[in-house]
Amino acid sequence: MGDLGWVAYPKNGWEEIGEVDEDYAPIHTYQVCRVMEQNQNNWLHTNWILTEGAQRVFIELKFTLRDCNSLPGGVGTCKETFNMLMKESRYIKIDTIAADESFTELDLGDRVMKLNTEVRDLGPLTRKGFYLAFQDLGACIALVSVRVFYKRCPFLVKSLAEFPDTIPGSEASQLVEVVGHCVNNSLPLYEPPRMHCSTEGEWLVPIGKCVCQPGFEEINGSCKVCKMGFYRSLLDSLACSKCPPHSVARQTGATSCSCEDGYYKIDSDPPNMACTRPPSAPRNAISNVNETSVFLEWSVPMETGGRKDVRYNILCRRVLPDGRGLEECGPNVRFLPRRVALSNTSVMVADLQSHTNYSFLLEAVNGVSELAKDHAKQYVSLNVTTNQAAPSPVSVVRKGHTEKSSIALSWAEPDRPNGIILEYEIKYFEKEQDSSYTIIKSKETEMVVEGLKPSSVYIFQVRARTSAGYGAFSRRFEFQTSPYLTATSERTQALIVAVAITLALVLLAVVAGFLLTVHLGLLPLRRCGYSKAKQDPEEEKMHFHNGHIKFPGVRTYIDPLTYEDPNQAVHEFAQEIDVSFISIERIIGAGEFGEVCSGPLRLPGKREIQVAIKTLKAGYTEQQRRDFLWEASIMGQFNHPNIIRLEGVVTKSKPVMIITEYMENGSLDTFLKKNDGQFTVIQLVGMLRGIASGMRYLSDMGYVHRDLAARNILVNSNLVCKVSDFGLSRVLEDDPEAAYTTRGGKIPIRWTAPEAIAYRKFTSASDVWSYGIVMWEVMSYGERPYWEMSNQDVIKAIEESYRLPGPMDCPEALYHLMMDCWQRERSNRPKFDEIVCLLDKLIRNPSSLKKLVNSSHRVSNLLVEHASVEGDCSTRTQTVGEWLDSIKMGRYTELFMEGGYSSLETVAQMTSEDLRRVGVNLAGHQKKIITNIQEMRVHMNSTNSTVNI
Ligand code: ACK
């Protein structure tokens, strides 16, 4: 029971010794040194040590220990270690303690004290306190100090959060999570702040933080109130900000600023946005009347009120006759895209009454107009007078008597004829075959459509024409012809045969009469002007099969593939020439199969002519020979001044040759590049006319070229252009411009219509697209279409409605024609027939070529957007289904299809009534679809814009 309250046992073991240290401060040590005696077991217990909540404690011992070797004679029993134990409920050994350095006799003599320090940790502790004990088994020890301590994480303020003094966990490397407390006027940002207290008493891993609440800002680790004229609204902005323009903060600690008189703010305005006011009136309003529609356009107001959300509202009023005042326009007038909240500075107002005065008030509003009730509204007004209107669409078409090849139709006059109906047009085609259709006309409201196939479903649409033009087509009506008669009595059959013979005779007489009329020049065969109703060659062929009359004198091209023996096809269409009549003089180029040469051809009895000689190089396979001669089989069927003429073939001797007329100026693209800027516009149009004429001939023959490009046009000494290259280039292996498409075919992308690239739909209409590109090549003297753009970029740009810009100094009329050739919808492209007519007109009237493409539109390497049905690229949709999907109305796709609305063009003409009819019954859905249809119409009417590529 010593001064420290420690207990030593047995009594003659550990001994408490009071000493003084170097500074004469009293110190206690316990010593034991019974090294000479056997069986020592001397214990020293501490008194009870309180843990104060610590679960892990550290024990630091300082002691000296005698080196046994330095003891004379006592080595046998002497120890150099002792045990340290602890007790909560019973003693447990903590460790055996050895000295790092033990002392010797010598050290004692020199008064050197070799003090050892050892630290051990202890945990987890479960009780409020514990005892320590030191067990000596025969060593010579002086225990100088025992320090028992634990570690804690001290109170801390970090990121405006206070963390309390914290005792660590019991396990080594354990972290204790502590949630901090936000200091005055601060709040946790997103989540409460947290820190982690380690067993070493260190704060680690801070998470989250506090920030000053709105109206306060952080200065030197605490939150200070915002001064007057300043505000702080958001937790994540750091400092108080000055109030934005036209707003004030009259007190300290403001979380927002209030607007000055006459200025306003809406909830969605960000706090740092200035207070704003309503806009002034729109400016420079103009109107453009088209029959009973008016296009209104204006400029943005002088004063937008400081906001970007300016919108426009239209008030439409009809001027009553005899000065009886004004009357609101009513629900029948349509506004495209809508009447109020217009974001663009134009609107189309349709379905006005004809020959009527209207007054329009245009008002600009913005986000704060609603709040500014006492702000006087400012309008701009426009007065317009409408003209005559085209008739409204025929609403119902009925089926009458039906036979296997005819259907009788009847319909009612349109609801609003808007004038005297001059005639009706009936458009029809076999269902699913809408790439070709037939148009017939009738002055009555009924008609029997003949020449139909039995048991077939046909689609019919009718529209009316007045002096103001055509109205829109009715919606589509589907009717089916009767089936073949299965069991007919012999008498009926005989009757049918008799009637058929009579009809055939009558028809023959009519045809003969027609041919005679044509022959005498009484009936023009071709007329100028575009009309979508005309058919392309495929369609003409279809007409022929359906019993319609085809232009006389034009043969139909025969595919050499229809011949079992290709040699037979060659000799059917090409004359065999004896090689002795040809002399090869020069090589003029290289073809796919061998050299292209030139020289004179002297056929007996004919005058000598220059010819081009294509040769088939030696070592060819039978297949190559066939492919080479294929071109002759095709060319030999043509006879036209703008198609390269085949003189004959040499197949009986080697090398095999194809002999054609010689074209002194070679291919058109090189020729133009060589003569850049050298020709008059009329000369260029003359060349284009020639090419179009050749192409008209080919399309009349039912031949689709597929590789029409300036490089495949040859030019003679009189600048006559002739279409060439009819090689087996259907697969286009020989065209360096041809690239492989994803579908595997090889296609000259820059010259090819999108539908031909996408799904190999090659028609005369796709040749018309290529012709448009040739026009562009000619007018730009052989410039490469789309310059150095990659094929992929060209496809993408075309898909997104961009087109080549007008070439430098190109007459506007020609550029319009090119653009028409590049209509996405192939039935909207002009036919070669119409192109020739138009070019003839331009040549006859050269002043029509004076107006050049607006030079501001003609910036090199800019594509221009094509005004097309699909509208701009962001809202472009391809099918009705996709369009409906895009407005989340996809569920109606089937109903639209069943109702005959299978193209966006027809959808664009739908009214609410039509929607109800197809089965859209929910008012909200009707409204949504109608609003989008109106927007679609505006896109369809949208003007061209320019985009940088
Ligand atoms: O650009 P060019 O001079 O015109 O080079 C090519 C070359 O042969 C390989 O096709 C030229 N060529 C082809 N057919 C004829 C032809 N009938 N008259 C003159 N040159 C031709 C073409």
Automatic annotation (TrEMBL):
It comes from the Eukaryota. It holds the Pfam family Ephrin_rec_like. Gene3D superfamilies: ephrin a2 ectodomain, Galactose-binding domain-like, Immunoglobulins, Phosphorylase Kinase, domain 1, Transcription Factor, Ets-1, Transferase(Phosphotransferase) domain 1, Tumor Necrosis Factor Receptor, subunit A, domain 2. It is an enzyme of class 2 (transferase). GO terms for cellular component: dendrite; plasma membrane. Residues 1-158 form the Eph LBD domain. It is a single-pass type I membrane protein. The active site is at D707 (proton acceptor). ATP binds at I588, G589, A590, G591, E592, F593, G594, E595, V596, K614. Residues 875-939 form the SAM domain. It is found in: Cell membrane. Disulfide bonds join C33-C140, C68-C78. InterPro entries: Eph_TM, Ephrin_rcpt_lig-bd_dom, Ephrin_rcpt_TKs, FN3_dom, FN3_sf, Galactose-bd-like_sf, Growth_fac_rcpt_cys_sf, Ig-like_fold. Its EC number is 2.7.10.1. Keywords: ATP-binding, Cell membrane, Disulfide bond, Glycoprotein, Kinase, Membrane, Neurogenesis, Nucleotide-binding, Phosphoprotein, Receptor, Repeat, Signal, Transferase, Transmembrane, Transmembrane helix, Tyrosine-protein kinase. One of its GO terms (biological process) is axon guidance. Residues 582-843 form the Protein kinase domain. Residues 278-389, 390-484 form the Fibronectin type-III domain. The chain crosses the membrane at residues 130-150, 495-525. GO terms for molecular function: ATP binding; transmembrane-ephrin receptor activity. It catalyses: L-tyrosyl-[protein] + ATP = O-phospho-L-tyrosyl-[protein] + ADP + H(+). This is receptor protein-tyrosine kinase. It comes from Echeneis naucrates.
